[in-house]
What does this fold into?
Amino acid sequence: MVVNEIQAETGVGGSTLSHHLEKLKIDELITAEREKAFIRYRANIKALEELLGFLYAECCTRNKAVEPKRIATVCK
It folds into this structure.
């Protein structure tokens, strides 16, 4: 998505959105590619899967902070 598409979906202001996109890019959770006058942002699926796997293991398995059934309900 390009910035104006992300803004339309989220309602987040331009400077705030740019700040968060830059942080996500630095942490390699998204990629950014120039397309003419725009920058297209894409999710880094592999990195997000690893992050979600870690969070699931940490919250649901080790610390039992969240019951796995609650996660499955949210993901449906």
Summary: The first helix runs from residue 3 to 10.
